[in-house]
TrEMBL record:
Official protein name in the record: Iron complex transport system ATP-binding protein
CDD domains, alphabetized: ABC_Iron-Siderophores_B12_Hemin
PROSITE patterns named among the record's database cross-references: ABC_TRANSPORTER_1 (PS00211), ABC_TRANSPORTER_2 (PS50893)
Keywords: ATP-binding, Nucleotide-binding, Translocase, Transport
Organism of derivation: Sphingomonas kyeonggiensis
Length: 256
């Protein structure tokens, strides 16, 4: 499947959060959406899921998302929102089962195929040791991994993850990025909203840099994460070394 944005705009109240954003997303690619706080990254991700109204066009395989039935969109694009609060004391396994809801008819039971998808998600997200825990009692890092498992349980051809590294220790950040990368390598369309530029450079095939709701750069990490772009968008002086398998971006200070 493909997702295409054409001159997308989003206004929240009187504030224009996204302005004339155009980009295309294809299977087999892990794309990072990066930019400073308040740039419109999460709003753009939510627009791709028809969670906020937009102008312009957002097309999933040539169908405008605003006209697509909600259940169909949920089956095609899985979503991991940022900072989700859990209110109900469900077990972790039960919470992950909710990822299969887009595939279930009203009042139907989970099938063997659903159970198999849930087990695959638990394994891929490495949360088997948490399956009997009460979800509301998890740490922030544990909760993030479990919610990723719930998104994976959908087994949608596309996945949008908003700040999937939040609350994770460095080891689990690597695990999550490797998992997202493997999903893309297996043919999935994967989009991740990220703040860690070094992790984005290391794992993403492509980056879309947003500032003040506008796409200012779109390309490989080396094409996007230039000292000039970092100075213009983030207001920082930085040393960028993207050659080899271990890219680094060292912040030297605020630009003057």
């Amino acid at each position: 499947m493909n997702i295409r944005l054409e001159q997308v705009g989003v206004s929240l109240g009187k504030r224009h959060v996204v302005r004339s954003a155009s980009a295309g997303f294809a299977p087999g690619t892990l794309t990072g959406i990066v930019g400073p706080n308040g740039a419109g990254k999460s709003t753009l991700a939510r627009a791709m899921l028809a969670l906020v109204p937009h102008s312009g066009s957002i097309l999933v395989d040539d169908t405008e998302v605003a006209t697509m039935p909600r259940a169909e969109l949920a089956r095609r694009v899985a979503y991991l929102p940022q900072g989700q609060t859990l209110h109900w004391p469900l077990t972790v396994e039960r919470l992950i089962e909710l990822g299969r809801l887009p595939h279930l008819a009203p009042m139907s039971r989970i099938s063997d195929a659903d159970t198999a998808a849930i087990e695959r998600a638990i394994t891929r997200a490495d949360v088997a040791d948490l399956r009997d825990r009460v979800a509301t009692e998890l740490s922030g890092g544990e909760r993030a991994r479990v919610l990723l498992a719930r998104a994976l349980a959908v087994e949608a051809p596309a996945l949008i993850a908003d700040e999937p590294l939040a609350s994770l220790d460095p080891g689990h950040q690597i695990d999550v990025m490797e998992l997202l990368q493997s999903e893309a390598r297996a043919g999935g369309l994967v989009i991740a909203v990220l703040h860690d530029l070094t992790m984005a450079a290391r794992y993403c095939d492509r980056l879309v840099l947003i500032d003040s709701g506008t796409v200012v750069a779109d390309g490989t990490p080396a094409e996007v994460l230039t000292p000039a772009n970092l100075k213009s968008v983030y207001g920082i002086e930085a040393k960028v070394e993207l050659s080899g398998d271990w890219p680094t971006i060292t912040t030297l200070g605020r630009s003057r």
